[in-house]
Structure formats: C-alpha cells, structure tokens
Amino acid sequence: MTKIAVVEGDGIGREVVPIARAVIEAVRPDLEFFEVEAGYGLWKRTGNACGEETMADLRSADAVLFGAVTTPPDPGYRSVLLQIRRELDLYANVRPIRGEGVDIVIVRENTEGLYSGIEWMESDRACTVRVVSRRGSERIARYACALAKSRRHLTVGNKANVLKSDCLFVEVCTAEAARAGVPCRTCYIDALALDLLMHPDRYDVVVTTNIFGDILSDAAAYLVGGLGMLPSANIGERHALFEPVHGSAPDIAGRNIANPVAAIRSGAMLLSHLGDAAAAAAVEEAVRRVLGAGIQTRDLGGVAGTREFGAAVLREVGRGK
Ligand code: ATP
Ligand code: MG
C-alpha cells in the first residue's frame, strides 16, 4: 500500500492541505494517508517543532504532502523545513511556473549554497558561508539536465562574475548539459530576473543555487497570478515532499480566503511522482476548469472562499471520472 504522510503545519497550511488531500483521495482512493504534526504550533505545545518521531514518520512514507510552517523570529527556533530538507536529503526543489503563455520549471539546489547553515557571530559582524560543492552541483545539474532533455533547453542562473562559488556551479552545469546533449546557456541572475518576467517564452528549465532559486521563483509567481498558484516538489534519492511555494501567511490565516491552488497542484506533482500521470493531469484539468469558470479566490480578484473553491475542484474531478 502506498503511504502518504500529510503535514498541515501552521497558518493557511491547515486550510489548504485538507483540500489538496481530499482532491488526491478523490482520484486515488487506494492511497493510505496519515497525519504528521510539525511546526510552530507543535513547538508551542511541546517545545519541539519537528522531533525524531516526526522525522521517522516522514521517512516511512512513500511521499509527503506538506503545507507550511511558520518560522518565528525566535533565536531558539530552527527552521523545520530546512531540517526536513537536510535530513531527508531533498536536494532538488522543483518549481513549475505554468499559466497562459508561460511554461517554465525552476530547479533550485536545495541543500547548500547560502542556506548552508554555517553561520557565526563575531564582535561586529555576522557571517554566513555560501557552500557550493562539486557533488551538490553535479546531482542538481543531472536532475535539471534530465528534465530539460524531455523538454527544450536549460538556463544556468548564476553570479559567476562575482562569486567564485558560482564559477564551480556553472562549470559543472555546462559540462553536464554537454554530456547530456541539452542546449544550454548561462545567465547572470540579476539580468535573468528581469528578462524572465519580460520574456518568459525565452525560458524553459532554469537551474540555479539555493537562494537565487528561492527569490526567482517568488518573483516568477507574478507571471501566473501570484504565490497562491505555485506548487513545488522537493526531491531526493529516497524521499519526496510536495508543498506550495508560499508560506503559512499568518496575515490571512483562518479566514477562508487563502488560495488552495498551489497546494492542490502540489498534490498533482505528488501523483505524477508516484507514476500516475493520468491522475495528475485530471487534477490539473479540474483546477483549470474551475478557474476558467470564474470561480476564483480573492487574491485572483474573485470572491470564492478556500472551501468553496476546493468543493468546486472536487466536483470537477468527480465529473472527470
Ligand atoms: P512564512 O513566514 O510562513 O513564509 P509569510 O508571511 O512569508 O509566511 P507567505 O506565505 O510566504 O507568507 O506569503 C506572503 C504573502 O502572500 C502573504 O502574506 C499572503 O498575503 C500572500 N499569500 C501567500 N500564499 C497565499 C495563498 N495561498 N492565497 C492567498 N494569498 C497568499
Ligand atoms: Mg515567505
């Protein structure tokens, strides 16, 4: 039996994840779901945001459907998502940006770069080490090239004109692209950020380091209706976790106004990862139809609530069967 761990987490994660789960269940009633607790809410109750038990549960699953966790500005608090990404070694963060005339996949290195976690304070300065390893670059390059091979081409986002660490990243990515026979070009990340928004049709697969990918994908959300629309996958050799790109959005939590599309589409990516392309396509199609019928949440200019939107998608997937 295929087992799916479900982590609602905090904030709007608790509103959008149950909807995504219901949609996946509707197309794949054979999957077994189990709830796993993690996040700031759990930390407040137990003093631990993501303990060994949580990690063991996540490891035991075939895939994880994840909502969002709040990271409070508390010095004693470690980011749960960074911990999970590191412990499950989820090295590829895959963020498709799809919409009218836009079809881009941002592949972000997920375990090192400026999020290496190697940081310290000195008397009058704070230091964070940006780590780019050959092994880390090779595996993300291989992932991006395999994806680009089935699509069109690859762009390597970098700042090698300033950062030595990016010279290595570019060297590894271009070598891998040549080996794989993938058309490839390199682009400085600042110029890329503007050009991607002005000419999205010039881009297909974009591979880049951790923080650049994080920022670039939030900005690219502008092309397709905002953060509420973007799903993502975190892929490792042995584990996979699917989550909306957005965070817990405490400012709008608990008001039935969050857009559940990002979470539902993350569910579609999960189905695709399980090898069920037909179910994934059915979910995507249902979302497209509901949006096309003018049922939209407030961030898209509509009036539908989170639950009402979810109910409409469930009706559509039911009809598709
Ligand atoms: P976190 O600290 O968990 O990352 P955040 O305050 O950074 O939370 P995000 O979730 O990253 O919040 O989103 C930034 C803003 O975008 C939110 O304040 C919210 O207004 C909006 N937003 C994010 N996700 C959604 C969504 N699914 N539907 C509607 N608006 C959203
Ligand atoms: Mg955020």
From TrEMBL:
Secretion signal, residue range per the UniProt entry: none
Pfam families, alphabetized: Iso_dh
SMART domains: Iso_dh (SM01329)
Highest taxon above the source species: Archaea
InterPro entries listed in its UniProt record: IsoCit/isopropylmalate_DH_CS (IPR019818), IsoPropMal-DH-like_dom (IPR024084)
Alphabetical list of PROSITE patterns matching this protein: IDH_IMDH
Residue span, Isopropylmalate dehydrogenase-like domain: 3-313
GO molecular function, one term: oxidoreductase activity
Keyword annotations: Oxidoreductase
Family membership noted in the UniProt record: Belongs to the isocitrate and isopropylmalate dehydrogenases family.
Protein name from the UniProt record: Isocitrate/isopropylmalate family dehydrogenase
Species this protein is from: Methanoculleus palmolei
